[in-house]
Amino acid sequence: MTIKVLAFAGSPRRHGNSETLLDWVLAPMAMDPEVAVEKVPLTEANINICRGCNACEKLNKCVQRDGMDTYHDKIVDADIILLSSPIFCMGIASLPKALIDRMQVFRSRKFVLKLPVVPPERRGKRLGVFLSTAGQDWPHVFDAAIPSVKCFYHVIDIKDADISYLMINNVDEKGAIEKHPTAKGDAEKLGKAMLAEIKTRLAA
Question: For the purposes of burial, counting CB atoms within 10 Å of the CB of 191, is it exposed (0-12), middle (13-18) or buried (19 or more)?
Fold first, then answer.
């Protein structure tokens, strides 16, 4: 059985610090022949903002026809979902925030229509990863992003305990992550750990 890994690169600046961190986590996964990795740059995903119309509470789908027509099912099918974002103005960047807001359709499915997001046999077997970078060196610089990230994973049936985080501060200019003493090693270690854990869960 192929392990499906879906990764959203959330920065408006391609191949910057947060996307590099994401690539490092994905690298050991992509080397495994049992794994299919898809990385989606949100700059190219054509995901509109949520309109707040709540039509999904009745239709069980969004009324908008855009990139989410593709990524909706991929989010449901994935075994590991990764999201990366830089911190802008002390919060998550606008592209990943738009993605998170479009999870409203899953919120409606789960809490209003009382329908499953994933089949019962897959619940508790999926993993989430949040990766982030920030230019500021304050220890609290990531605090405002975490609730949105938890909401993202919660409505697609990935529990708090199944979310892993790697957040690196004090890397501002493009390429600064390359000079960080531990970021690459920590990212590769996380990728290997996620792969080992998902194999254990899927085999159970």
Answer: buried
What is the pTM for the complete model shown? 0.96
Q: DSSP code of 42? A: G
Alpha helices in 45-143 (DSSP H): 56-59, 68-77, 94-101, 104-107
Burial class of 77 by CB neighbour count within 10 A (0 to 12, 13 to 18, 19+): exposed
Q: How far apart are the first and last CA of the chain?
A: 13
Contact 148, 178 (CB under 8 A): no
Query: Which bin fits 148, alpha (ψ -120 to 50), beta or left (φ > 0)?
Result: alpha
Write the CA distances from 136 to 64, 87, 88, integer angstroms.
37, 9, 10
Q: What is the pLDDT of residues 58-70, one digit of tens each?
A: 999 999 999 999 9
Q: 123: phi > 0 → left, psi -120 to 50 → alpha, else beta; which?
A: beta
Structure token pair of residue 58: 């009745």
Tokens of 1: 């059985």
Rounded CA-CA distance 57/149 in Å is: 22
